[in-house]
Design a protein that fits this description.
Elements (H helix, E strand, L loop, with lengths): L1 H16 L2 H6 L2 E9 L4 E4 L2 E5 L2 E6 L9 E5 L6 E4 L2 E3 L1 H9 L2 H14 L3 E3 L3 E5 L5 H10 L1
Parallel strand pairs: 1-9
Antiparallel strand pairs: 1-4, 2-3, 2-5, 5-6, 7-8
C-alpha cells in the first residue's frame, strides 16, 4: 500500500512539473520598445504594433531563424531595424532535473518545440534614431 502511494505521489509530482518552463514563464512574453524621439512607428514581423513607447506581448519561438524583425520609423529620421534575440530559459533546466524519466524528456521536448525553453533577451529596447541629413532630404525633394 505504501509503495503504491509513494509511486502515485512521484507520478503526480512528475506530471505537475512537466513543461515547467511553460508553467513558470508561459508561451508569450512582454517586450518594451522606447525611442528618442518618441512617437516612432514600430513594426514587428511586418505588423504595426504601435508608436513608441510601446509594450507588446509576443509569442515565444523555438529557433533563432524564427526570431522576428523589428523596424522603427519616423518621417525625417533614418529607419532602424533589428532582430529580437533570445536566450535559454533556466526554468527548462529545472524542469528536466526535477522531472523523472519519460516525463522529464517529454517536458524538455515540449518546452523546446513550443519555444518555452527560451526567453527574449533583452526585454527592453531603447532606440535613438538619427535625423536624415538635409542633403539627403534636399535630393529627395528635387526628385519628386
Amino acid at each position: 500500500m505504501r509503495e503504491s502511494l509513494f509511486l502515485g505521489i512521484v507520478m503526480m509530482v512528475s506530471a505537475l512539473t512537466s513543461g515547467c518552463a511553460y508553467f513558470l514563464h508561459g508561451e508569450k512574453e512582454e517586450i518594451s520598445i522606447d525611442s528618442d524621439p518618441r512617437g516612432e512607428e514600430v513594426v514587428l514581423a511586418g505588423k504595426i504594433i504601435g508608436k513608441t513607447p510601446v509594450n507588446y506581448i509576443i509569442q515565444k519561438v523555438s529557433s533563432k531563424d524564427k526570431l522576428p524583425e523589428v523596424a522603427i520609423t519616423k518621417e525625417g529620421y533614418q529607419r532602424h531595424s533589428f532582430r529580437l534575440e533570445h536566450q535559454f530559459d533556466n526554468a527548462a533546466v529545472v524542469d528536466f532535473i526535477f522531472s523523472t524519466g519519460l516525463a522529464g524528456t517529454t517536458s524538455l521536448i515540449a518546452d523546446y518545440s513550443t519555444g518555452e525553453m527560451y526567453e527574449y533577451s533583452p526585454k527592453n529596447y531603447y532606440i535613438r534614431l538619427e535625423q536624415e541629413s538635409k542633403a539627403t532630404s534636399k535630393i529627395n525633394n528635387e526628385e519628386e
